[in-house]
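FAQ
Q: What does a multi-component entry look like?
A: The components come first, one per line:
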Amino acid sequence: MLDGLALFGSSIARFGEPMTLLHIAVASFLGLVIGALPGLTATMGVALLTTLTLKLPPDLAILVLICTYVGAIYGGSRSAILLNIPGTPANAAACLDGYALARQGLAGRAMGISTTGSVMGTLIGIFFLALFTPVLGEIALKFGAYEFFWLAVFGVIISGNLTGDDPLKGWLVGFLGLFVASIGQDAIHAYERFSFGNRDLAGGFQLIPALVGAFGFAEVLSVLSEKVARPAIHAVDSYLPRIRDVLRYWRTVIRSGLIGTFIGIVPGVGEDVASWSSYAAARRASKEADKFGKGSVEGLMAAETGDNACVPGAIIPVLALAVPGSAPAAVLMAAMIIHGVQPGPLIMVQNPQFVYDVVAMMMYATLGILVFGLVMVRPLIKILQVPRDVIMPIVFVLCVIGAFAIAQRLFDIWTMLGFGVVGYILRRFNYPMAPFVLGIVLGDLLDKNLRRGLVISDGDLTPFFVRPISALMFAVCLITILLAIPAVNDWARQAWARVRTS
Amino acid sequence: MKRIALVLTALLIATPATAQWKPTKPINLIVPWAAGGSTDQVTRLVAAELEGPLGQKIVVVNQPGASGSIGTKNALEAPKDGYTWTAGAAQDLGTYIVLGMLETKITDWNLYLNVANVPTVGVGAATPYQSFNDLVEAMKKQPGQITVATAGITSGGHNAMEAIAKATGVTYRHVTYDGGNPAVIATVSGETQVTTQLTVEQTEMIRAKRIRPLAVVGDKGIEIDGHGTIPPITQWLPNFKAPTNYFGVFVPKGVPAEVTQTLDKVWADVIMKSDALRKYAASKGALFAPAMGADAQAKVMPAVAANAWMLHEGGKSKVAPNTVGIAKP
Amino acid sequence: MTEKPTPQADFISALVWLAFAALVITGAWTMDRLEAQHINPYTAPGLVPGLLGVGIAIMGALLLVRAMRAGGHRWVRSPIAAKSVDRGRLWLALVLCLVFGAVLVGRGLPFWLATMVFVAVTTFLFQWPERRSKGQLGRGALVALACGAGTAAAVTLVFQEIFLVRLP
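Then the predicted structure of the entire assembly, as tokens:
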């Protein structure tokens, strides 16, 4: 323990030099911009900078990448709050309440909440990264096909209650999302489903164009089509984060931090799932669940704490096992390998300093987002003062580039347009968008792991129920479904009250 | 030293012996697989080596999907101006046509190979199999029961296992994952018992004693420092033939001649002498194997043919390989 | 979007869901089960889409029943009451966006030019009624053009020059 502290101290000191601090500042800023621009994701940003920093010394290069990663996941909330376009898929949940708050004239406060949430989330994640990496890394290996299947099922179950007051409609669009995810080449037999011989469809719809369409383009259409323009917001409400918000929702912050870290550790699911699950859990536990989706401080806090806690979480299995916990973490790991640092089970023995270096890098990255997060609120809030007839065409241009930039395919632009129109129609019929997006995220997970599990067990269903973690997850799913039935819920409440009073 | 070498090569290239291609905008290098995988890693390394001599940025763009056919299609359909390249395994590029995925043959491309990867038969540390023979015996005793993890039907890992099954007459249960690394992780965690993915993807787990390598699917052993030498499969199956799986950067034919001339020269002067690439290959259990031109075409053909015919015999092809110029090996 | 949907709207959407579910189930049922490849029947590619189709059908039926109980099957003139939506503006936005996204982009026209034209035209047209009533049409055109040029320049600089994205 003391050794660890000494190593950590030397890491902190080593990165405290002026030149290194400059790198941290530039990288955090770049990350923020990458995150805030739709279509430039954390994965793409880290990959782009891997190439650009190849000639830097290894620890400086990895420092730059970590700052970019943290900055991008944080920065995506800016466009979510201001424009209702998630800057990265991780910030889709932040759109729901962040944008609602901005429309109520509380954009400054919303950005403050996302800053405090992100910082708190990262710190919670770092705590586990610093102290429990070897132990927690093993969790990554406990998750097999059966557990992933239940994880996906759980996501589908909560999708109905994610937003809005009509769970049936939530599940309908959730299932639509799951179906959309199944289009294209399947992951088990490479069979092309519903592609009708079209090569682009064979690759399936990508998440980001669908996301930008369903949130961004649909929003452009509905804002432009309103008879009366929404009043422009001239007042800057507050741009300093309020400590009160954190104190008031400390349970939400800690819960979301834990969920985010855990989702980060589990390989194959990343920041987006972390933020959705934190959001759903917060709504379930909240006393003000009806406010969610209409500008809930708690909801935004949960979403932003969850996705940022996922970042250190995703690095835990990288260091412990060379198993990336999320897509950007996979690129980060590749960069480490290219730079001659081999993460994995031997790292604690061969290169313990590196683990503490990473912890120190994460600390500096947190500092970076805190500083820029506070400085950039004032200039950004001006975006809301531009009249809609001017800003919306520009937002649409960003939607087009956002869909295109990640893979540079025209098909992705068409995907964005199609999902935008369908999303707009669904909104007019009062269907929520969030479950749809969650369905697309989870569809692949559900499909592959159900069938993979059945291959491994040769069609036997028992492993889905008897393995320890999957049994637990099945129980959680079952209880969630039962509690959604009003009669059962009432009975449980009464029983609980009786237990308490006796 | 390396910098001096770079400057020297830059000077050499600058001599106006042939028409010299000087790219005026960044070059897009499409990796048709996810960022962070084995193709992505080696391609980024090569891209960084090429940037200096070409005097231009090379932007690696990841376009995963449909077994790499989407990104490859986009590289194929891009303007033939030399500014769009792709990368990957030559045996994939050569068999898209057989699978009915893309109308392109391996001979439609200029191949610039960098490394060759060999699969290894690895088993989880908790499994009882101590040698390749143990595993084959167990597979014979429990036909179709032992689980083998690979990165999918068209992957090098599945090819290797199919070839082993054919040579030994065993059957197995095939479990597919999203990529080589997830397949290896599944074997480490005990979800599957065996993996036949590339050695590159297993080295770290081998060093950490989480995976026990039983045999290299090839005729030469591989030495991994911290572990020792993995014996070749020919020790048990003397007649086993495993074509080498080459990876590289591919530029479609039809680009201006000065592009390929310049690339030929840079490949010969820089990549073939690259210390960074050599070191990377050695540390990951890959073979440093740069090649280009007709030499590269000749080297990749055996693997393309073996892959194409295996898919055809497994009922997965849409076009018979011999009709598109891939002779039966 | 705050208006409550009428039962008629739910009735229509329920019918659409049922039709969609029928298509999905048919597609999944007739999908190749890859018997020729001797795969494990549990891993047939149509399994999960089929299950999803059944799920959508069940929920669509529930929605249909709910809507009919509320009288949704009776015909009304405009099922989605949308007092706040200006249809003219909606169609204009839709057409302009689709023309830009699906027609102008990626047909050889430089992206900066397409962007400039799109932003300028869209801004100008949407501001038309207001500008005309104030007699500022000329000024409106200038402002719109400036917005277009500014967007085109900023987008090209940030995405193409800094982040090296090759624009369509």
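Q: Is there any commentary attached?
A: Sometimes. For this entry: Chain C has a mean pLDDT of 84.
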